[in-house]
Amino acid sequence: MTKQRMLQQMIDLNATLKVTFKLPLVARKKTEAPSRLSIKDVDFVETEILRQFFINTQRIVDFEFFAYPEDKAKDDENRFVGLHYHAVVRSENDAKFIAVAPKKYEAVLRTRFTQLQTDFVMPKEPLFIAPLSKVSNANDFLEADTYEQYCLKHYEPSLSLVSSAPYRIKRLAA
Predict the structure, then answer these.
(1) Where are the domains of the chain?
(2) Structural class in CATH, domain 3-167
(3) What percent of the chain has pLDDT over 90?
(4) Residue 81 in contact with residue 71, Cβ under 8 Å?
């Protein structure tokens, strides 16, 4: 997927929030100390964590998102910081999403990593949520919080763009 196509999908979503999904330090074996997940763990995170978070939160507030993985520091591509996801979110009720999502995400992380029966260390703030600016100021053309700049920040085209669409449960008409 090209950066232009990815950006267009994110713009078409018309998101109002930017979100960072942070992941805990996880021990691979019971004898190891917890360490950061890497870009190699995206399949696990997308199928086990993000999917369950979407299903659980969707029950309370309707929302859609696009997210992409990253495991490097934003100011230094050679510095490994552990796997995390940047996302843009559009919800029917932003205030409700901001109130509910952090609790649901933390619950999913705790449940899933407890099931693995390995040691894990939760981040202080597992889900970071902030408003997303749609228009940049004329004086600050490359403002980091503008919609397009946030969507493209450190995106690696070889990695997949995660959408909430496949996680939707199809409702049968009664």
Answers:
(1) 3-167
(2) alpha beta
(3) 31
(4) yes
